[in-house]
Structure prediction request, 328 residues.
Amino acid sequence: MNRTPAVPKRFFAALAGALLVIGAAASSGSAGSGPTVSMPSQAVQGQTVGVAVAVRPAGVRCSISVRYADGSVQPGLNPIVAKAGRASWKWQIAENTAPGRATVKVACGKAGQLSRTLMVTAKPKTAPKVVVEKQGFSLRYLPGGNATASVGVILKNTSPDEDAFNVQVLINFLDPNNVVVGSINVPVSVVSAGSTYNYGNSLNWVGQPTVSRLEVVVTTKAHAQKAQKYPGMANVRIVPSPYDPGYVGEVDGELINDRDIFTLGNAQLSIVILDAAGNVIGGGSGSSFAPIPPGARMLFKAPNGFKAVKIAEATTALVSVVPSWSRT
Prediction:
């Protein structure tokens, strides 16, 4: 009778020493939960990822590589000596990393190597919510029984990654009895992600209403991934009116085209005026229609809407720009 030869115990010990284990993450296998070996099976753009390995014999040198769905490779992952039989890596997946199947490979020399899959998913986009950060107005009664108001509203897009488009701004002027005595309803074309927009406007009355406060309603019609580019600005200044002593005439400044290959065309300017305490006391608007070539600057003048703002109270002008660009 033939017998199968007995396999020496040292063979199994040698085989066990050649195994490299990477455990797919389970609910109890996340990094930091204990001396277990883990790797997530999926991650989101921008997320920090950890991979840990246990290997025998201890002291071998292990390396890791991560190749994403578009072929790009995760930088900064250096080889590690597996002291006490363990090695681990941690990195942050970039926000713009291609979604899809990424390949994670770990090699520990003669101790073995393995390849696993990490599914990268797109980071959920935060739908923009445009809120009112500050608001205020100045009301002026004019000779002849009429009135004018200058109003400013600082809008803030709370989404970090989505631009808000066609933002409808309804401003109601209310009297002490909560009755609407005047309204402005003008859209703002875009409020960029994570930024503020300085909305300025004015309203005229035939008659002299009493206005005690504003009621502002903001709605957003559309949104898209952050992509807006804005020109620079310098030397913004508030200029008194030469024809209406004691009141603001216009806001001047410089528009700077700091882009390399794009010409700045029509630029719509919207302005909020603050007093010394930082309160909104009015606003206005202007535009710049002359093209500004790359690397150049040009004076702008915004003369509209400031007739009710006293020059003695006007301290700071906050300017927002909605530009148009064309390739040079």
